[in-house]
Amino acid sequence: MIRKLAMTGLISALGLAMGTFAAKAEYPDKPVKIIVPVAAGGGVDVMARLLAQKLGERLNQQFVVENRAGAAGVIGSKAVIASPPDGLTLLYTPSSLSLSVVVNKTPPYDLAKDFTPIINVAISPYALVVNPSVPAHSLKEFIAYAKANSGKLAFSSAGVGSASHLAGELLKVKAGFDMVHVPNKGMNPAIIDLMGGQVQVLFASVPGMMSEKSDRLRPIAMAELKRSALLPDMPTMDESGLPGFAVGNWAGLLGPAGLDPAIVKKLNSEVLAILDTPDMKERIKTLGFDLIASTPEQFAKQLQEDVERWGPVAKAAASEDKK
């Protein structure tokens, strides 16, 4: 009798364990929402939709992109923080996620405690771009003009704390002139404002800029240490007189804190597999991105390094604003 009861208990325990394993193996068993905290139409949004489509095809489940722009990504990011850690709400975000921590006097969240990094997918190179009303065709000419008109030029960005914002602040410090910051709700609206003449300067993502193909904007220099394959004749800011000037905008996938490691591992491996396909490699190249394809641990380290790198720039910008 005792042996029979023990055997029954063992079978029940095995059944429960197998059921738990099956449940994890079936992820996702419901549609997954990927929140993109920037406006639709930019490079980050396009990449998120490509990944959502491919993940849906591979995992036989719907992955839906939802844009929640505003406050340099903080609005969308906080929506993910407040979500259950079940893998059904994810965040595909640019580097404004970490930069918002350094530009706000009170950080909107704790990167280490509020998120679960899954994979840093790719990085988008930036270029210094001006409205054609600015009489400059090189970085040297632009700096000379900006110094002669210090405080009169306005530069836009994808939002306070975005890479495009801090790139502008870094240029002001390194080149020694002032510009007025006019934040926007994403890269695409910022590019539209630049073309419309509402602002004169922007550090634009190359994918977003190339998608416009407009004569109403003029690239001056690449904000990278190496030239872009999409704009091979465009000199870098480093080679144009500002040594070491490099700004890129990574984009990666995260979940809320406490996300099951099994789900993290599955999503990481699935995205890696997607990024390794010939058609995706070609699409990413066409969009102007460079692959990162990180581990969750490497992504977590990147978030920490961003705060350490950009903290002093943000502090200098804040001090300048108080003058």
The sequence of SSEs as H and E is HEHEHEHHEHEHEHEHEEHHEH
CATH architecture of the largest domain: 3-Layer(aba) Sandwich
How many runs of DSSP E, i.e. beta strands?
Answer: 10
Number of H/I helices? 12
CATH topology of the largest domain: D-Maltodextrin-Binding Protein, domain 2
Q: Output the structural class.
A: alpha/beta
- Ends distance: 85 Å
Strand content: 15-25%
**For this structure, what is the CATH class of the largest domain?**
Alpha Beta
- Give helix % range: 40-55%
- Low-confidence blocks of residues: 13-23
Question: How many domains comprise the coordinates?
Answer: 2
CATH superfamily of the largest domain: Bordetella uptake gene, domain 1
The 3D shape can be described as: globular
Largest β sheet strand count, sense and barrel closure: 10 strands, mixed
Entry keywords:
323 residues, alpha/beta, D-Maltodextrin-Binding Protein, domain 2, 2 domains, ten-stranded mixed sheet, 10 strands, globular
Fold topology:
Blueprint lengths: L1 H24 L6 E5 L6 H17 L3 E5 L6 H8 L7 E6 L1 H8 L7 H4 E16 L8 H10 L5 E4 L5 H13 L4 E4 L3 H10 L4 E5 H7 L5 E5 L25 E9 L4 H15 L2 H10 L2 E2 L4 H27 L1
Parallel strand pairs: 1-2, 1-3, 5-6, 5-7
Antiparallel strand pairs: 3-9, 4-7, 4-8, 4-9, 4-10
Explain what this protein looks like in three dimensions.
- α7 (163-175) packs across α12.
- The radius of gyration is 22 Å and the shape is globular.
- The protein has twelve helices and ten strands.
- Strands 1, 2, 3, 4, 5, 6, 7, 8, 9 and 10 form a ten-stranded mixed β-sheet that branches.
- The protein starts with a helix and ends with a helix.
- 47% of the residues lie in helices and 19% in strands.
